[in-house]
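It is worth pausing here to work through a concrete case rather than discussing structure prediction in the abstract. The textbook approach is simple: state the sequence, then state the predicted structure, then interpret. We follow exactly that order.
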Amino acid sequence: MTPEEHGQKLGMELAEYQVKSQKQICDLAVHEARFKAITAQNEAERAQNEREASALIASRSQQQAINYTRPCIIHRPALREVHDDDGKFLHWEASYGSLSAYGPTPETTHVEFDRLWVGKDEI
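Step two, the predicted structure:
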């Protein structure tokens, strides 16, 4: 092989290497861009989840504060199942002193107790 042919061969190998290197650099740039996009999307979703969680916690805290002022929470009426003579379930009863409320579930019975306690049609 002549020095010129050897130089041409080395030049071609160098060019192939440069093309291959440039392709790898481009591939890395594409992967980096995808990674940054996915990371940004994940950060946005995390921030949204944190906002939703904070709102839910605030809502539940407010609901708990309201619940602590309910007559059925303050006075703790006795809650019992009422059955007929055959043992068939009829309803729930919440009673405190002379006040009694009835309902198909404990929660609805407590709501009815609260309504009767404050003397309003709706709570």
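Step three, interpretation. The chain has two domains: 1-68, 71-118. The first helix runs from residue 3 to 67.
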